[in-house]
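Hi all, long-time lurker, first post. I run a small reading group and we've been trying to get comfortable going from sequence to structure in the token notation. Rather than ask abstract questions, I figured I'd post a concrete chain and ask someone more experienced to write out its structure so we can walk through it together at our next meeting. Sequence below, copied exactly:
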Amino acid sequence: MKMNNMAIVMAGLILSTAAQASNTIQFQGEVADQTCDVTINGQASAPLVLLPTVPSSSLANAGETTGQTPFTVGVSGCTASASVTAIKTVFVGNNLTASGRMGNTASVDNNVSLQLVDPAVPATPLDLTGQTGAAGLSLAANATSASHTFAVQYYAEGTALPGAVLGSVQYSVSYQ
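-- Answer (accepted) --
Happy to help. Here is the structure in token form:
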């Protein structure tokens, strides 16, 4: 009987350990020599980038893009440094598609997603998994502010159908 009770206790410990692992919250941060105030199109909170209304015919085939809309990531209030500071912008998409684009949360059935790009290299979409940061933002020596322009565009996952398009990303900057 003691062996059965011991087996039950051991099983309970194993299950509670497994349950604890699935209920783990990880927190991540960074301590850096440099910090700045970050804005999107000059907005420090709740930025909104409005894309143009486009005809569904411009997204008739999978892989087509249209409506590229620039937005600016800016940093200000930085501490001036004697050397150049490279800053990577990290984007983490919410509701990513299987191919890594922002899924449309307004109308899931219209075959349209959103893609972030650097306008200087529009054929290469930005990573929205948070695994790598996008280069381009650089704080010049002795400067206290800088900015870099990125862009968002519609992407046809298939033949686009009319409907609203809404997507979002979280962002952070990483000082190199």
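A couple of things your group might point at:
The domain at 35-175 is CATH 2.60.40.1090 (Immunoglobulin-like).
The chain has one domain: 35-175.
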